[in-house]
Amino acid sequence: MLVSFSSIIRLLCAFLFLSPALALENESGDSDPRHTNNWAVLVSTSRFWFNYRHMANVLSMYRTVKRLGIPDSQIILMLSDDVACNSRNLFPGSVFNNQDRAIDLYGESIEVDYRGNEVTVENFIRLLTDRWGPDHPRSKRLLTDENSNIFIYMTGHGGNEFLKFQDAEEISAWDIADAFEQMHEKKRYNEIFFMIDTCQANTMYTKFYSPNILACGSSEFEESSYSHHSDVEIGVAVIDRFTYYNLEFSEKIERNSTLTLQDLFDFYTFDKIHSHAGVRTDLYNRDPSKVLITDFFGNVQSAVADEIEDDILYLLNHKEEEEETSNTASNTTTSSDNVTRVKNVDSSTINQYGANVINIKDTPTENNYAKYIVLASLGAIFLKTILK
Amino acid sequence: MNEEVERPAVLDKAERVKQIIHSETRESLSTRRYVVLSILALYFLIGFPLWMKLTEIYRAPLPSNFINMLQANQNIDLKIHREVFVKINDGLYFPDLAESTQIQIDHEIFKMNQDPNEQLIVDWNVTLRFDEPGPDDYILELEIGDGEGIAVDPSTRLTVLYYTLSSIKNNDLPYFITQTVLYHIFNSELEFFKIKNQQKNNKAINYSPKVHLSFKLLTGDGDLVDWKINEALDIFFQPIVETFQNYVNFTIDSEIKYFTELNLVNSSNAITLKDLSTIVDFSEWDISSNNFNYPTLNFVLYYPSKSVSPLNFEFDSSKNAFLFPQWGSLILQKESLKPNSVLNEHELRPIFEKFTSELITLLGLPKHPKTLQIRLDAIKVYSIFTNLIRGTDSLSSLLKLSKSLPNMSIPKTVLKNVQNALKARENTIKSANYDKDWDRALIESNKMLEYSELAFFDREMVQQSFFPQEHKVAVYLPLLGPLSIVCFLGIFRIISEIKLFRYARP
Amino acid sequence: MKIQLEALLGLLALSHSVVADGPASNHSHSINEDVFENATAYPYEETLDITPLPRNNLLISFNFNIASEYINVSESKSHHQYRAFPRSLAPILESTDTRELHLRFGQGWWDSEEWGQLPYSGEHSGGVGVEVWSVIEAAGREQSFEKWTSLVNSLSGLFCASLNFIDSSKTTYPVRSFKPENNITLFDDRNELHLIRAALASEPVCTENLTPFVKFLPGRGKSGLSSLLDGHRVFESEWHKMSIDIETRCDGELCRYVMSQKIDAVIDIPRAIRTKKNPIPKPVSGNELNCDLDKPNDAFECFPLGDSNKLDFTLSDLLHRSILGGSKFSEKPAKVCAHVTDNWDTYLKVDGNYFGTPSNCFDVTGDDVYDLYFQTGDSTNVQSIKDVPIFVSRSLTGYGQDKGGSRTVFNNPLNEPVRLLYFESLPWFMRVYLHTVSVSGGGANELVKSVYYSPEVDRERPTHIEFELIIPANSTIALSYSFDKSLLLYSEYPPDANHGFSVEPGVVNVLEPVKYSLRTSSALLTLPTPDFSMPYNVIILSSTIMALAFGTLFNLLVKRLVTEEEADLVIEVSGPKAAIQKLKSKISVLKKSSPLTSKDSN
Question: Signal sequence span per UniProt (chain A) (predicted)?
Fold first, then answer.
């Protein structure tokens, strides 16, 4: 759904007049009582140095959500290629999204969950539906529940209802829609905010059918999304327009910000982005003008003051003491039935089995010719039987 | 004139064509016909079914009717029947107390179920027994006292009901007993099962038989500090671990982290409760990472750094324990720790009292009555109930999923897990209804939940990793395409040949 | 069936210096009245060694040693206390029964000819990419492999590296190389110990791998020597390595983990100083050129000299960071040592003041900010490099897409023969023919003492070869063998398959006359790759072939052979042309009989 001009004006006015009211109201009325934690899934799908800007896009969003409070343990970052330590990178360990190189997105403390060849369509779907083998580490899983708001951001090269992964495979809008439906079935999210920055991005969210999903994309069907500018020294484009303006908006936000999603959507204009950004709200039951940006970009780990009972241990210990005075002879032994004895092992015996150490003198040298003769004779026999 | 000349030529041609057609031997004609028929037969009767069979995705037959029935009637077969053993002291004997009290209790529960607000979602009942109780049973002692009153022992399941001689005269005893049993002993348990309270409690984590507790000492400075955590855990916390061992097993670790700072925007402003969500920096503190596949609760004792100490609280600094729903608890101290200081057990005792109270809330235990065992009993039966519901939810989600994605394979392991889940459910009902062995029922209900989660989150059920439809077409098109076209064109040829024969009939 | 191996080969002399739990520190008492005890220092030590290398390079070596708390192995303790040892690592080791773990991350190339031996005799420097090997206690090989899989998957989450790609097709069970030096303790003597190893040569190493390293330390990069670690500088070096070695040390029934973390980097000093001024390499402006005064030099001509040998720099010029205080967690103060010759002046800079010591080693304590200052008039005068016992280089030979060869050249510059073990783990699609092994520069029978060969099993096991070689004094030998390349299944090709497949570096462990360990470079193997962009063409081509083959067969069997004239005749009578003619005639008949066409002449 595109946002019409008049509604923008109306909403802006409403925002200006009502913002003090909103600031007060936020505690009770508009904060979603079912929402207790935030997750972010940030995916870049392109390979090769000339797609530097896609990595910069994702890292810009990473920086934003991290700055606003989402911890690394709740961010899944998928970088399909290594640009920071790429040998072509003039600034090792740094990724910039602006030619003024003011912000280093890679920073000093970064946790990349999936990198390189791990970023595949299969892994992305598995991540969303949480279908992994038993050894998959917790830090690489999306451990959301029905109280989680998830911000999903994807960028790369895309087209009509597909997104290209690693220049080798594609994910279709149907796949993502089905994955979201599975998540909905298993109550793995409270709300999802899906943002995508590719060519023809808006087609990717047309197939969603699960509730509580808000989606926005950078360009319409048959429209391309453009990069913003290049850095002459790095040699490639460093950021895409849509994400650049997202970042410009987000840099103004602090953790206690009261700006809403509608403000973000109103910030997108054709003049800035050079394509028609789209928003889909029909599956979302809240009004974006009442939803705080920090509901998705920040981490709501709100504390609750609880009534403390400070005598439980006393009671239990007291009871223990009483019991102790009465039962004197009951000594619980801690030894378990399985005998575990500590033993020193000579490391020369490790991997001893199967150690066939052969002397090179003993290796028979095969005769290649014998092999060929046998094969030729077999072939001859075979041909004879056929032609008979 | 020309026409007449042509006619015989045309007729001639037609004659010759007929001749040509009939010059074929019967044998060769029938051979050709048989060849065509056999190729078609091979194609349709053997090839096509074989191809369908080989490329079909294995979808195990799930017991959908049974699961749908379970989902529709939530836990209708679970019976939670409690027993309370009544002991009458002072040598008295009330012959009809048992019957009259039981009638009152049953009536009270019936009334509760009639009221749409107070309705219970499970079949719950309590029976009074007058025989010898066991060591872990609920005991209600009737004792003559100065007035009427109830005393619940905070450390055992014993309740004493004081009555006077006038209560006997007024025949109030059954009423008192009913009130005691339903609204004091089992009050929390009943509250769990009331239909109005079914909104999920956001603070507590979902039940899990193993929970990891992580105690952390965080200090904003980089000076060496220490705490006698092992001793404190052994002395204070061990009784809790033992009390809870039938409900949940705890694994515990502790660590100390330095240089953990608060995000104080303006250090002169007083810190309010609302500020806590912004000044606490979970990301920077790096305390949430672990690799356990069961839930973790974090208990953080925080001392600010010298540069910001003492902290300016808006709230009372003795009420400095905060609960973060489903995550853990934070105790925020006002002053910083001196370098090289060691927190001994004496100092840790009040900290642990606070942590224990928060732990109880985080596990979902009710606040009343004071007796921990009774609270545990209440949460135990409620967990059994919710485990069964969650398990059934998973299974019905699995069914829904399998219907909506017809191209997804359903491996045998899924069927096995579903069957195990249903078997575990059966065992739960048996343990609860017949054996009244709540510990066993809890274990079985947990198994049911685990199996149903395993069934739903099976690794193989990812549509991508199996044969997508488009690929099937792409791979078999070179084989089937030409074959089909050639065969079908051949059939047309045969039909036109037959037409030709008819035409050429003499 | 078991063949007795020779006695312990002390290959890897792990040089740890573990600090035992010492008594209470002797810092001043705090005034808090409740405290009557002092916090004990952690079993933690950190050191920094700086060694100038020839050609204006500087080797910076960080070393962090941490030990965990003691645990009683025979009791099952339900709670663990973590003080210095990282809480994120210990449960992984415990749940997978890992007794020893060695991890190596590295990039760059060590110039052995210029710089001599690798630091620590190469024991802590892995090859390019990521290497991991561990000793796991398990009942049998399958159980040990399961635990290994669980271990590498957990490590992949912890270190942000794609270690989860390690499966059975990349895992080897080394027989003679990588043997641990010390005896290892079995916690349950019904089990056995298994040494398992894998490497990923094409794995990039970047800040996300450095971050967990730093997080393991108690100071977390905010105090002590770890405050110098910055990914931007470490990864801009000529060569860098990060290593973690964890061992289980037992004292009877009490065991604990002892971890040693090392980061080494070789920095080009003039380049680093230039980069600090301006990160972009631009040509030096005319007035800053260092012209050779012996040659014509004026405003239009200049023969620029190389980098000057006079150096004057601080550590913060190179690393862009200073040392933020000492380590308050360890008993011994953090130690910074510069291994320089008398030609160099080394000072510790604190608060604008410079301090020197005769040994050029400094203890860093307290809360001040420290920096190191170096000055020399002749940077070519450095401590003599240790002679490398062997130079190894490996390359792939041959051309074409169906076979190739590998050639490893060993050059012994010493005056005595060198005995070494050469370990190679080659992917399964590189089908090695052991009978094609040839050794030049001497007979194979004299130079190759023994071979351990475990052939590959497709998609399950790599080729595992361990040669024991004796290289005679002052000689060069070349070990070569040929292999076949194989086609992979369509789905097994990674994205950008034409880039090639990386082959792990070969590992050389020198046994005599010195213990030394080095790696060759990794190799990039180009396999025959299909053209992934042409599935439709493939479909059409194979459809055509099938149609031709089956169509011809079908027609031969089903249709009747007649002569061409007869066929023409039949077609004339009953073919499509005839049918059209009939249709036309029918239409003309209809037209004639229709009243519309009748010409009524009026």
Answer: 1-23
